[in-house]
Amino acid sequence: MFSVSSVRRIVGAVIPSRMITTFFWIGYLPEWQSHWTAFFSIPLALLVVYFTIGFSVPAVLVAQVLLIFSLVLLFLGLIGIYFFQKTVFSESRYEITIHVAFGQCLMLALSVPAIIKTLTQIFLFNSFICAHFLNCADWFLKYATYFITTLVPYFVFRLIDIVKPWPSYWIERDYNNAFSNMLEGFFNAIYASALFYALNFILFNLLLIDVVEFYKQVFSGVFLNRGIPWVYL
To answer: The YutG/PgpA domain covers which part of the protein (predicted)?
Structure first.
């Protein structure tokens, strides 16, 4: 008959908790683990979108895929951190970075209208620069716009993760378990999304009513089984 510790070791051997918890071993880098995790989680999220529905789809579908992907990261993070802390001896909490990837991807999922608005404004600015000063090729204008746009939510999220407004700082200081780590990522995503929207409301005249209407469609599609079927993931 198997004991609890034996079952835990068996499950821990099957689940790649080290890879999950350190987000593909980024947590083992000597420094800047959170920065690199947040940075690489963005192209990973974009790859998930590309290989599930592609990019030539309504933005609502993109938000739905990002939301589902965030939930997958949440589940993997809870399981991975639990078994990582039970089976791998480590005194460094900085090796755990999956919550950063979860927070960054959740921020993307919750900020799609702001991302689109930012993309539009950056494209207009780049078009002006290319037309009057640089004489850019069309492909350069396109990809430069996409690249700069992906950096904006990254830096916004990193700012929040560094500042750690309440309760993120309190959670990180007093707790270190699967639930607390993922909860910290959740609150950081909420704060980062709020800051990103505030910047768009002020600078680009994004309307709150448009954001609310957008996410009514997103959440009805996910939770009422309309829009993207779960089989895509």
So the answer is: 20-199
